[in-house]
Amino acid sequence: IVVMVSLGLGMNRAFEQQLEAYGSLTTITVYGGRDYGYMESTSSSGSGSEDQVTLDAETTAEIESLDYVKTVVGFKNFNAMLYAGKYMGWTSIKAVDFDKLSSLDIELSEGTLPTKDGQYEVLMGYQVPYNFYDPNSRDPYGSMPQIDVFSDKIELLPSTDYYDGKRPKGFVITPTGLTSEDDYDYAWYVFVDYDTYLKMQEDFARKNRTSDQNGDSRNNRDEDQSLYDELRVDVDDIDHVQGVQEIIKSMGFEAYSLTDALESMKQFSSLVQAVLGGIGGVSLFIAAIGITNTMVMSIYERTKEIGVMKVIGAQLKDIKRLFLFEAAMIGFFGGILGIGISYGISFIVNSLLSGMSDGSGYYGFALQSYIPLWLALTGVGFSTLIGLIAGYYPAVRATRLSALEAIRTE
């Protein structure tokens, strides 16, 4: 039974580990949402004033004031191009206030976080150096190089427009770090300070004599630059994520977190645990019958001993306690033996199955057996309780034996 429960717990653990590779389980991503208050403000003529909810500084402060919320970071998202010698590649820019970048708890595989003081300092996702290709090659995607972002000269163009002829002048950026390979959520992005990126756009248009209309329409200078494309909300604990997320949705925004996928995975895990629990219940019933049968046979074998105890003055409650204690000890020591066997099976499961494919298992996630201390103690306590229940009938039967008939028994 302990092994069956441990497989369910291990499955939940594997789901969490799998999702953590795609980002933090305590982070909520918020996007600009639906029209808020439209139904309440419609007039009899069918027209109404729509209050479009927006991701601005006021919204950020409101969400940050919610219970259990640690920090809120706003992003503007842009597309851009990177050049490294003869190689080029497309990338996604996340413009963010570098003063808040450290609050995202981004793990680095190399380097340090960028600062506002450096000249065009950026933070790169670990997949960005692999995203370059040679546009003049016959097979540009056949041999994609890995660029050394710390030594190679990398130029950024804050635009993805195609330019016929001479390549426009961009900006030489200074990558200060690469994100960890364990953090897939930021693997393809380049982080740039928000004010620095706006300055890049202005300088790019001036240097290349282009207008804002030649670039991404979302970057139009008439756009309110105080609006964000998305917010990242950091919650203090995974147990509070869903509650905070529902509050944000009630404000009219679209909100998503990895716990959404985790909840559906846990529902599947609960179904598996229910099936395994049913199988365990049958084995538990058989075990209880076995203990009862053992204790009844013990009474038959010790009938004369019971009679002697009654004749010399043993009270009925003492005889009852004696047999209940024996039954409890059968359950207790059987429970300890069972926990030992469970840990052995758990070790085999984790070694032979979960150790394959760098911990990813055969079917996309590692099959794990996880036995926490509380499960082991509960298993021993439960088996002791089962021993007491199974030994109650034999103990009562022992107290009802006639002393004289018991003494005569051979």
What tags apply to this protein structure?
single chain, 410 residues, alpha+beta, six-stranded mixed beta barrel, two-stranded antiparallel ribbon, 10 helices, 17% strand, elongated
Topology:
Blueprint: H1 2-20, E1 27-31, E2 35-36, E3 51-52, H2 57-64, E4 69-84, E5 87-96, H3 98-101, E6 108-111, E7 121-124, E8 154-157, E9 171-179, E10 189-193, H4 194-207, E11 230-235, H5 241-250, E12 254-257, H6 258-301, H7 303-311, H8 316-354, H9 373-399, H10 403-408
Helix pairs in contact: 1-6, 6-9, 8-9
Structural write-up:
- It is a single chain.
- The protein has 410 residues and is α+β, with helices and mostly antiparallel strands.
- The chain has ten helices and twelve strands.
- Strands 4-5-10-7-9-8 form a six-stranded mixed β-barrel. A two-stranded antiparallel sheet has the order 2-3.
